[in-house]
Write a structure and sequence with these properties.
Elements lengths: L1 H21 L6 H20 L11 H6 L1
Helix pairs in contact: 1-2
């Protein structure tokens, strides 16, 4: 259970950081686009570094659904 929660936190963390940054009153549509690209880049990095030792160790079936 702990490992599953740790994996979920790792997947949702880039989204949470982007939302926190976009809550600023000065955020524009361009900022939304840039943060969306950053989230996608983070997901790509998570998927590339997905192993038991240094990554999140997410099962392949779960990764394919993401």
């Amino acid at each position: 259970m702990k490992e599953s929660l740790w994996q979920l936190k790792g997947i949702l963390e880039p989204i949470a950081q982007a939302v926190k940054c976009l809550e600023a009153s000065q955020a524009t549509a361009a900022d939304v686009f840039l943060y969306w690209l950053a989230v996608l880049s983070s997901f790509e990095q998570i998927m590339k570094e997905n192993d038991e030792l240094s990554g999140l160790g997410i099962p392949e079936g779960v990764l394919s659904e993401i």
